[in-house]
Each structure stands twice: as C-alpha cells, then as structure tokens.
Amino acid sequence: MSIYYIDAIRLALEEALDKDPSVFLYGQDIGRFGGAFKATQGLKEKFPDRVVDAPISEDAIAGLAIGAAIEGMRPVIEMQFADFSSIAFNQIVNNAATHYFRTGVPVPLVMRLPSGGTPGSGPFHSQNLEAIYGHYPGLKVVAPAFVSDAYSLMLEAIACDDPVIFCEHKFLYRWLSTERFRPLDLPIGKGRIIRAGKHATVATYSAMVHEALKAADELAKDGWQIEIVDLRTIKPLDTDTVLASVARTGRLLAVSEDFPFGSVASEVVAKVASSGFDLLDAPPMQHNSKDTPIPYHPNLWSAHRPTAESIKIALLELLNF
Amino acid sequence: MINTQDSYLDVYRSMLFARRLEERIASLYRAGKIVGGVYLGRGQEAVSASLGYALKRSLGDVFAPLIRDQAGRVAFGEDPLDFARTYLGSVKGPMRGRDGNIHRGRPSEGMPAMISHLGASVSVINGMLFAKRLRGDSGFVGGATSGEGATSTGAFHEGLNQAAVENLPLVVVVTDNQFAYSTPNARQFACDSLVDRAEGYGVAGHTCVGNDLKECVDTICEAVDNARRGQGPQLVVAQSLRLCGHGEHDDAFYVPDEIRETELGQDCIDTGRDFLISRSLATAEELDAMDEELRSRVREVMATAQRDPQPDPFRDDWRTFSQL
Questions:
Q1: Class level of CATH domain A192-320
Q2: What was the ipTM of the complex prediction?
Q3: Do B128 and A67 touch (CB under 8 A)?
Q4: Is A195 helix (H, G, I), strand (E, B) or coil?
Q5: Which cofactor does it need (chain A) (predicted)?
Q6: Which residue out of A125, A199, A210, A287 is catalytically annotated?
Q7: pTM of the entire structure?
C-alpha cells in the first residue's frame, strides 16, 4: 500500500495524539472536515476533545497555542495555507520565538504551514516562508522532502520544546508516495546527501529536491555527476554537510522555491562563500523563483518557480564556469 | 462571594503600594538610573488592583497584565522585587536583564509576560484557559487587561471572539483612559461606548467608573464571579484618565486641562481614601500608617534590587532554547 506525504503527516499526528495526552490540534476546518487538504482526516472522531476547529483567526490561533504551551500542553496548529500565517506573524516571531530567552519558559508548539506552489494557486496560496521564520532567533524551521522525513520530523517537532515551524509542501501531499515507509533516525538540524556526485553540489529542500533529482538524472546522461544535499531543516541549517559536499565537488548551486531576496538559497550561498571560499572552483550560485508575486496561470507558474529544466540550465552554467 | 467589606481595604492597599513603588522608579528614572522607559499606572490603580484582587492564584486563575497594571500585579501576588529587579535589569529578576520594565512575567506561575504588541495577550490567556480545561481542571478564570487603544487591533478582536466561541472563562478589562499615547478617543473608535462591542461578540458587558474604588471592586468581582460560574467571557469597560504621560519621557501636553478638572481627573488614591474613611472601613490614622509601612517596604525592595548584580555580557548565555 502506498503511503503519501500527507498520510505520513496524518500518521505522525495520530501517533502523537495517541501517545501524549498533552498534544492537541487546533486550526481552521481541521475537525470533522479533516482539514483543507485532509491532513487531519479521521482524527476528530478518534480524539474529539483534542482536535478542535478554530475560527478564522490566525493571530488568535497562534496566541492560544502559545498560552497552552506555557501551561504545559503541546499544541499543533494548522495555518490553512502558509501564506495566511502572516496574520499570526506577531505571535510567532515576537511572542513564541522570544519567550524562552525572556522568561526561561519554553513554548513547545508546532505551526504547520502548507507551503509552496501548486498550479493555479496564485499569489496568496503558494508562498514559501521558510527564510522569513528562519530569520528569527528561537524558532526551528523544518521542510521535509520525503514521506519518511515528513513522519519522523513531525514526531520530533511535536516532542521538541521549541516552537517549530513545520513547512509541508502542498505539491508533495498527493504526488509523493512510498512503498517502503520507515521512520528515520535523523534529527532536526541534520541534512542528508541523497545523491552522491563529484562535479557539483545542489543544496535544496522540500519539493525542489525532486526537481533537482530530475535535473541530475538528465545531466547524468552527459556524464555529469551531481551531488544533492537535502537540507531537511532550514533552522538550524546544516552547513557542515553542505561544506563537506562542496569540498568534494568544488561547485555549489543552492536552490529554494522562495523569492530570491534573503532566501534560504541566499543563506546557503553566504555560508559557503564565507566559510568555504577556498573549496570553491566557481562562484557559488543561487536559484529561486522569480522576484514577482506568484502567478496564477499554470503556464506562468511553471516558469516562475525553479523546475528540473531551469535547475539543469543553472547547473550547466555552473559546470561550464 | 469574594466581595466583602474587607475587599475595599485590600484593594486600596495594593493601589497604594503600586503608587509608591512606581513613584520610586520614576524618581530613579529621572536620576538616570533606569534604561529604556518607565510607564506608570497613575490614575488607573483602582481598576487594575480590582482585577488582580478578584483573580485568585489558589484557584488556578491566570492574569495577563498590561503596561499600567502594577497595582493589579501587586494584588495578584507578584513579588515587588520582580518589579524593581526588572526595571533595574538585575540578573536576579524574572527576565534576567533580557527584557525590562513592564514586560516581565512568571508564565509558569499564572502571569504571562507581555509583549509590546497590543492585544496579543488576550489569545495567550485563552490558550492557558484552554489548556486547563483540556486537562480537566475547573473553577479557574483568566483576566486580561487592555487600554482603549488596543481594542482597535485585530489581535484584540480575534482574542475576544475566540474566547466567546470557545466559551472560555475570560474577563477582559478595558481601561478607557481617553488617550492611547497621544491619540484621543475620537481618533480611536467611532462607537458610543466600547462596552457596546460586548454584544457584538456575544459576551456580557459591564461598565464602571475607573477612579471609584467601590464601583471597580464590585463590577470586576461580579464579572470574575460570572466567568467562574460558567457564564463565559466578560468585558468590563472602565472610564478613566491617565494622570501622567504615556511614559515618564512624555509630558502629556496633548491632554487638555479641562478634562483633568472633570470627575474623570480625580485621583483614585484620593477618592479611595475618602471612601474608606467615609464608610468607616479605616481611619485616616490607619491609612497614614499603612502608607508609611508601604513606603518603608518600597525602600527595602529598592535597596535590595539596587545591590543585585547586573548581567555580564561575557558570562551571559546568549543562546535561545533552540540553540542549546
């Protein structure tokens, strides 16, 4: 039986609810309806008191989670779309993120962000906010690319005493599945080399891992061996694994689906340039979506964000430097 | 029922203690001994202390004070050393020098630490109440305070609406002190009275005169009792006037003299004293003795805090929890 990315998230939520009575879910339409993407389907029936529909109030959803976490619970909140979390921004970055530093009391909450683009979603249902949240001290930000990672990182995020921003990719929800589902023993903060190579390193995460894999397959036909690092976690960022890879390949392309200014890719490039300049045989490159709001029409959308084709072109430029 | 004759005297004591504590801090500020700002609750002590008094830590109550709630903090049982140490940046204070002045709290002891973003504490208190209910506790109430300015924020609206939807035992006390920093009510809201909003949220609304000790105690205790008895969120709007600037850096030139000469401009410490004496709840001599005792405690608290060590940047742990 195939287990999809979204199934892994639901299974992890179910397991956490089952094992720990302090876990509860709170968000819009997550109850009997099962969530806008059905990530919580069936959980209300099994845990009626701990799977709770919220009014359309992102700020108050996050605030309630902070209060409950202070009281010793482990809330998992769903922002229906990552984009909508901008309304909860204050509570997350000013209240949750600073709380431990100010008071010595941790805030163990998880904010689930259905992130990234799908065709036809447009400017308000497609954004990647990993870099925005990664900017703030006190938050952990994870962005799984694989079914098993989604499961393991979700369980770890819920058990974590910090506020964790959990970026789930909507495109992967029902596109990515596995027959061999096995929990990973790789913690938050650790990246993973998912394809070995010697000519260039691609550092990326979430849906872009799969685009990069396709690009690497294409380039392999011409004899190029591309190494791919799945960052898995945006904050803390596993630059050690990236630097070790660049030490082997001498070239870096950082890819993230977010906008180019101050993106996760920018951060990776900056870290490698400042800590591993002597490892580089070519200028480190970054590849992002275009610096315009995310377009609606699929023709525009598919050219707006990085794809296997655009990653391949960027890699060829890097390889031929 | 917690509203006994003794309550007025207890609340007054908290009001007076807060006033004396704040006077001392304001004096230290003028002497250049305090970094950042100093924000006083002058004129709002009766409202604040009434809420702090009505909430009982022993019953599991939680309290989210705001900028002008020193009196409520005292009444709720905050150690006055927390006040002095936070303003002075002592490492022995609850914020260890990492946050200052009025932002302090002891979240694990029922008093969350505020952030400067107004309205944010309403939903945080909701979360604390929600967690207690999920755990199976009962009989607790959460109090959150607000100025009239914060009622214009989305966070305030979302928080109150959320509490109503969840039927949480929340009491929100809005102290309408006529000016949000310098912005007068006419530029803040366009309804006749903020208490009318209670109906819009589907919660009970109450009003009181903010410098009338008896009205504040009676009204706020009733609201807290209602919430404790399962009647859902309560909104209290208290008419008041800030008898100082927004902070001690602000001379409040924008507050017209005429408003100070109205009944709103009367100091609740003075009217409270008159009330206690007129009702024979205390004599002038007893209240003078109380004042002297509190002044003496303030001197002790300040002296202790001023002897505390300051943070050492070379020894401080700069990590947040996620970096441990």
A1: alpha beta
A2: 0.96
A3: yes
A4: strand
A5: thiamine diphosphate
A6: A125
A7: 0.97
